[in-house]
Amino acid sequence: MSNLDYFKGMGFDAIWISPVVLNYQGAYHGYAALDFFSINPNFGTEQDLINLVDACHAKDIWVMVDIVGNHVAPVGFDYSKISPFNQSEHYHDYCEINDDDWDHNQTRVENCRIFNLPDLNQSNPFVREGLKNWVKWLINTFHVDGLRIDTVPEVQKDFWADFSTASGVYTVGEVFNGRYDYVAGYQGALSGTLNYPGYFNLKGIFQYGNSMYNFRAHYTNMNLFKDQGLLGNFADNHDNPRFLNGTSNIARYQNALNFVLSSVGIPIVYYGSEQGFSGGNDPGCREPLWGHMNTSSPLYQFLKTIISYRQQLKWWQYPQVERYADDNFYAFTRGEVLMAFTNSDNEVRRTITYHPYAEGTRLCNIFYPGDCVKVTNGSFDVFLEHGETKTFIVNGTHVVQ
Known about the structure:
Structural class: alpha/beta
Number of strands: 17
Distance between the termini: 23 Å
Shape: globular
Largest sheet: 6 strands, antiparallel
Order of helices and strands: HEEEHEHHHEHEHEHHEHHEHEEEEEEEE
């Protein structure tokens, strides 16, 4: 609780915390439940969690908690260790998901074990109702505002629809897959999903230098989703090597972060991004933040600047309109704000002719107040130096941070 101002100082108005239920010994991550109705003592007591949520709400910060409804702790077949699902009939018959199943056998994905973790049978009435009653208890007791749901494709969609309704809050699901049609199929059962297709596209463009025309194809495919505004956009998370593990290019990372915070969807920034963390595969990407909370770090200040303008100008209320695209440059507007990106480390200059601005309009870059352009003869030039990203606002009206 004493560190909330660190996050609020960047402008964040919601946090996503790890699963809070009692876990298998040594399962620091929280994804191996032993008792669904007990709080992990490594995090504190029930009252501590209530106090944390209350403290967040007092600072106008919403709280989203991570939950698991697919599996339990690695107890083998000794289900007596699990509460309340302590009988063999509460689980699917033993089988394990194979690599080939993910794209070819959805039945096995839903009924078999992942990482040999006992797979709950949501078709069993006790399990189905038990999980719904548990999430109601979680919401009503701790007053959390949303749920991030783990291992979503491993459970039938009809269960998630019932579960999401029972929760009564925003639900965003982990569908760890790059196929647009597959991931989109889970929106409706849940409020939204983590935008894995967008993540893979973002990483390909800014980390590996793939053509920025791919954004055009990406947004065509995104029309498969019912509501893109409810998806969770991200450049890093706890299940993948950090962006800076694959490249040390900070400018590319700033492009990716600005894209996450500016494009349609709900932006999610993984802790440590603001300090330039660069851990590899899990658990390397789960570095401790404590002791590394420098509010003067360049990326902390970079994020703070974007978020302050995002909040002031409320650009999420406006549609995202592509204004220019080629292999190394991409720009879009949201309302009167123009965001420009590049995957090149060289100097890039483009002339923007398709835009919403009147002749003579002055546009200034939020990162450098003196960097301004003027619409002349229906166009203006955008110049990106050494891979930088820019966000332009009308008349250079800058937000007090």
